[in-house]
Amino acid sequence: MAHDLEAAADEVRPQLVAASLIAAFDAFDRPALGAVPPEDVATRIDPVFAFLRGGLAGLRTRVNNKRQRHSSH
Questions:
Q1: What is the pLDDT of residue 66?
Q2: Torsion angle, CA of 4/12/18/32, rounded to 10 degrees?
Q3: Which is higher by pLDDT, 12 or 24?
Q4: 71: which residues sit within 8 A by CB, 6+ positions away?
Q5: Kindly report the CA angle at 69 between 67 and 73, in degrees rounded to 5?
Q6: Confidence of residue 45 (pLDDT cuts 50, 70, 90)
Q7: Stretch 50-69: mean pLDDT, rounded?
Q8: Distances (CA, A) of 64 to 8, 30, 61
Q9: Statement: residue 2 has pLDDT above 70
């Protein structure tokens, strides 16, 4: 994730993405939700990946915009 974000592994951005992914998968492991049948795992996880892709794209855009502003000065 750090590589994709062009960030150091100890930066907060890749750590946030990793924590978000862990939290999303942890949400499926709640007894109140019941067991997720294997055939439903992909259906339930697809929105998680879409959410994370959107977040990653936003982080990349923000960093790229910041770089462009700094290089134009």
A1: 67
A2: -150
A3: 12
A4: none
A5: 115
A6: confident
A7: 73
A8: 15, 38, 5
A9: yes
Q: What is the dihedral of CA 49, 53, 59, 61, to 10 degrees?
A: -170
Domain range for 24: 12-71
- Helical segments of 1-73, H only: 12-27, 38-71
Q: How many domains does the chain have?
A: 1
Percent share of the chain, pLDDT over 70: 71
Q: Are 21 and 52 spatial neighbours (Cβ–Cβ below 8 Å)? A: yes
Task: Look at residue 51 and tell me if it is in a domain.
Answer: yes
In a domain, 6, yes or no: no
Is there a contact between 14 and 69 (Cβ–Cβ < 8 Å)?
A: no
Q: Is residue 18 part of a domain?
A: yes
Q: Is residue 2 part of a domain?
A: no
Residue 1 near residue 14, CB atoms below 8 Å: yes
